[in-house]
Design brief:
This protein is of the alpha/beta class. Helices cover 45% and strands 13% of the residues.
Length: 766
């Protein structure tokens, strides 16, 4: 492997100073809690079991009554604080364990906390199990069950999707909506304390979505079922309508703790506040810098405004990272400090390592995959790591296509943790194009015919019935021609069928990428653009991204048949891999989205696709012209909000690494030049910029102390803004122009007015 593939800073970074976090003070409870203090015995007993808390952890653990926000940076030991504070309440303040409620988001986290509480010194397992440590859904299900809610829990996502499909079929629109995205829309409304009745109905498409979801809700009532969202909405309604029940719960749960508070949605927050009233003994732990699930209803404003909802609240910041060396922590600090909507904190590290984050600049995603897998194989061969030590993180499903294939082709054991069990080629917008390629090779591929019927605006069941019945009587070289026998079709629809067959005939001898371009240019891109029914559920930019990536994949092949064979191999490999997921001891590389990696950690992390357009994603850079489809405070998304969440994603990815971090930024993405992620370049400031990690934050903290609003610049400091801009691609020209018109955002590129070089869209901070 070439020695200079990896560099100690991103290519194009204005500065050369490597950001490193300050090393933390090594003092623990052993030095910080003296023997003369009244609660020293508790901390001595913790130390005997190997638990040594630092200063902010001690402060959080000692908190007794009233609201407290614990800002827990990545790797700062938040679970230890929750567990030890639970023990402290019982051991020092003699709190009855039945009066403690600890709420988290996953069963795994709840189970881990129960186990760790049981191992605390001085506690019996019986006493520890009396602490109510549950997920939100488990706890509130227990409450509604106690009041006669005996409905069956609809937990199978496949059953939900099949039900939606049946409703779509009954309404005659089965090929127009994706069931999972319809369910997501409904969930978003419920988590914002809204109902189906609150869904918009301005356009025909919105009215149709409302009818579909209303039918779904009716089906659940008729079959006596509720889903996970309903557990919370029913609990909310029950507590609102039954004051006696609420008072009973308030009397019992005198101390409430919430884990991963940054992921809380408005409905969960309201439920917690109801239970905590009137004592407000609410202890919440979270990190606003890791709020990355807004699409699932998480609202960053909840944790940011906790002190406004509870003016008497105290704040403790856990700022000592035990997970990563100072180079990785330092990079995370310098990346996230550019966000404005955040609580001020700069993490320190407990580890000093010579190896700093390494950066890679391959030509494209295929070369990226080759280089990353080559590096992984070399690392394992030399005995430096096992496959299970390594994670490869990516922003979107499309950006993982090349790495998935390279892992497969090289025979590297890996497990892909995607949102679904499907490969890139099985995503519906990609699958339809692949179906045309299949028919170019095999004119009688009936499954492919069924897939493409929606592009002809023909009902799948009706179309396949006509094809099969007529093919049995009179076989044709191109069975699609049987569709012209459907009596209800208009003349232009029959012409479209003949044109489509003509297209398929002409594809056979083309190279795959040329064939895909023809399919897109002749009808498919227009089909996607004109289909308003997809607008409420799927971002069209995401569809285009997937199709562009399909073209990138196809460029490697000369024959369609060879390309289709690869696709089938990938699908088969994925089916085998799905079975491997259940083996937690498998020695396999983990391939997952950044979202999926939240809460996890790995000795070695490869972050791929760290280029503008991928991270930050193009949808964030152009968020100002895209309507927000989910409910978020009834506002449209903005470039600022979307970009800040993308930066938080980058921060989460960086902070997953325990020992080594490698970041790759392809030069070309979707056939276009891609700059190294702005987030990374900002982390390496030039000579005339502030290079000291945390200096800006300290200045802002000083402003805050003097009365300036949290997270905002002082009135004497010029505020920096991030906006879309045209950037000249010439190395010798530094001109840029702010994009201020809608027409500008529609252009792919323009000429520089100074040097006539190509200008591309990017972001500018000024």
């Amino acid at each position: 492997m070439e020695k200079k593939r990896f560099f100690c800073r991103p290519m194009g970074a204005p500065g050369s100073v490597v950001p490193r976090a300050e090393l933390a003070d090594s003092q623990t409870s052993r030095q910080l809690v003296s023997e003369s203090e009244w609660d020293a015995v508790y901390f001595r007993s913790l130390e005997e079991t190997g638990i040594f808390l630092n200063k902010p952890q001690i402060e959080a653990v000692r908190h007794y009554e009233g609201p407290l926000l614990t800002l827990a940076g990545a790797g700062t030991g938040k679970t230890s604080v929750l567990v030890c504070r639970t023990g402290y309440l019982m051991a020092i303040h003699n709190v009855d364990p039945r009066n403690i409620l600890l709420v988290t988001f996953t069963s795994k986290a709840a189970g881990e906390m129960k186990e760790r509480i049981a191992k605390l010194p001085g506690l019996t397992r019986q006493k520890a199990t009396q602490v109510e440590a549950r997920t939100f859904h488990s706890f509130f299900l227990k409450i509604i069950r106690s009041r006669g809610f005996n409905q069956k829990i609809l937990s199978n996502e496949r059953v939900k999707q099949i039900t939606i499909k049946q409703i779509l079929k009954k309404m005659g629109v089965e090929d127009t909506y994706q069931p999972e995205t319809l369910i997501s829309i409904l969930s978003s409304y419920k988590m914002n304390i809204l109902t189906v009745e609150d869904l918009p109905s301005r356009t025909d498409e919105e009215k149709e979505v409302k009818r579909i979801l209303s039918a779904y809700e009716s089906w659940k009532r008729e079959t006596d079922q509720i889903d996970f969202d309903d557990i919370l909405t029913e609990a909310y309604r029950l507590l609102k309508e039954t004051p006696s029940l609420l008072k009973m719960l308030q009397a019992r749960f005198r101390y409430i703790m919430v884990d991963e508070f940054q992921d809380t949605n408005p409905l969960q927050y309201e439920l917690v506040k109801m239970l905590a009233y009137p004592r407000h003994n609410l202890f919440v732990v979270g990190d606003d810098d890791q709020t990355i699930f807004s699409f699932n209803g998480a609202n960053n404003g909840i944790i940011l405004n906790f002190d406004k909802a509870f003016p008497e609240a105290k704040t403790v910041t856990l700022d000592i990272n035990y997970r990563s060396p100072n180079g990785i922590v330092g990079l995370g600090n310098t990346v996230i400090q550019h966000n404005k909507e955040r609580k001020l904190k700069t993490l320190k590290s407990t580890k000093e390592e010579a190896l700093t984050p390494q950066f890679l600049r391959p030509v494209d995603t295929d070369q990226e995959a080759e280089w990353v897998i080559e590096a992984i194989k070399e690392k394992v061969l030399e005995g430096k790591s096992q496959y299970r030590d390594i994670a490869i993180l990516h922003r979107t499903a499309s950006s993982s296509r090349a790495i998935f294939e390279q892992l497969t082709l090289d025979g590297i054991p890996f497990v892909s943790y995607g949102a679904t069990d499907q490969t890139f080629y099985e995503q519906w917008p990609v699958k339809m194009v692949v179906s045309y390629l299949r028919l170019a090779v095999d004119h009688h591929h009936f499954e492919a015919m069924e897939d493409l019927l929606p592009t002809l605006f023909i009902n799948r069941d009706q179309g396949m019935r006509v094809i099969r019945e007529n093919e049995a009587i009179q076989p044709k070289k191109y069975p699609l021609i049987h569709l012209t026998a459907i009596h209800t079709l208009k003349g232009f629809q029959k012409d479209a069928i003949r044109d489509r067959i003509k297209l398929i005939k002409g594809l056979k001898d083309l190279e795959p990428v040329t064939a895909i371009k023809q399919i897109r240019s002749q009808f498919y891109d227009k089909y996607l653009e004109a289909n308003d029914r997809q607008t409420p559920t799927v971002n069209k930019e995401t569809l285009k991204e997937a199709l562009d990536e399909l073209e990138t994949s196809a460029k490697r092949f000369k024959k369609i048949s060879t390309f289709v064979e690869l696709i089938d191999d990938m699908i088969r490999k994925n089916q085998e891999m799905v079975k491997l997921r259940s083996d937690v001891q498998a020695d396999a590389v983990s391939l997952m989205t950044i979202h999926r990696s939240k809460g996890l950690e790995f000795p070695v992390v490869y972050l791929i696709g760290a280029s503008d357009g991928i991270l930050p994603h193009s949808t964030a850079l152009e968020a100002n012209k895209m309507e927000e489809r989910a409910v978020r405070d009834d506002k449209k998304n903005t470039v600022h909000q979307a970009t800040e969440e993308e930066r938080r994603l980058c921060y989460v990815a960086i902070t997953r690494a325990q020992e080594e971090l490698y970041i790759s930024s392809p030069k070309v993405y979707r056939g276009k030049k891609a700059d190294v992620s702005t987030f990374l370049l900002q982390a390496y400031p030039g000579e005339n910029q502030d290079k000291t990690v945390g200096v800006k934050e300290k200045e802002r903290r000083t402003s805050q102390a003097s009365g300036t609003k949290l997270g905002k610049p002082d009135s004497t400091e010029r505020p920096k803004k991030t906006f879309l801009a045209w950037l000249c691609t010439s190395d010798s020209c530094h001109i840029w122009q702010k994009i201020i018109t809608y027409e500008d955002t529609e252009l792919e590129h323009k000429d520089c007015p100074l040097c006539q070089s190509k200008m591309v869209k990017g972001i500018k901070t000024f």
